[in-house]
Request: fold
Amino acid sequence: MKRELIVAIDGPSGSGKSTLSRLLAAALNYINIDTGAMYRSVGLAAHRGAIDPADTQALAELCARLTIEFVRNGAVERVLLNGEDVSEAIRTPEMSLMASRVSACLAVRDAMGRLQREMGNRGGVVLEGRDIGTVVFPQAEVKFFLLASAAERGRRRFEELRAKGLQVDLQQTIAEVEQRDAADCNRQHAPLLQADDALAIDTTTMTIEQVLQEMLVIVNKRRLQGCEA
Ligand code: DC
Reply:
């Protein structure tokens, strides 16, 4: 039986993953899975439950009781944590840091990885994150690794936060992005890593449209070959 592709997009924060994953999924009529939003949701649940992100036992128990779902209302994608819409609440700088901290816990990674495989294993999906092409779906038919300079990624994040009306400082945002990258790259479990068979795209000086077109050429070429379920 034939199935549609599994597309993995990995890379550091601010490399354009979220925007491109959403646009690519829409262009292909695939499901978009923002795995960072899942770690952010765990981070929010831990924060609300006053759980120390270093307490692996408490985090494992937390993951065993929570539910995370993605729902789409037209073009708008929402994240539900235990049925509550947390799409905005998970996007603060505080939750970025919290997500990075809880994502270093193996029990959290196992729980999220299991959920991601359940969501994606039938194909017709674009998953974006840090370890999709290396750990969650090493067998993904297409793997991208997006890059951009730290200054440009910090600037994008700064604009994004400012557009939401948050009071932020550019230099501090760049420093936070670098700090989070270092934590994501140096952690023991599933660090941010480019898979050997991933195609790297440096988006520093490219427009979103240019990156999207480059990705579409590659995905559509692979799609023509088809794949077995
Ligand atoms: O992509 P993001 O900024 O929303 O991700 C938030 C954090 O979650 C990030 O600092 C690292 C972690 N993460 C991860 O460890 N593995 C993933 N597949 C996705 C995100």
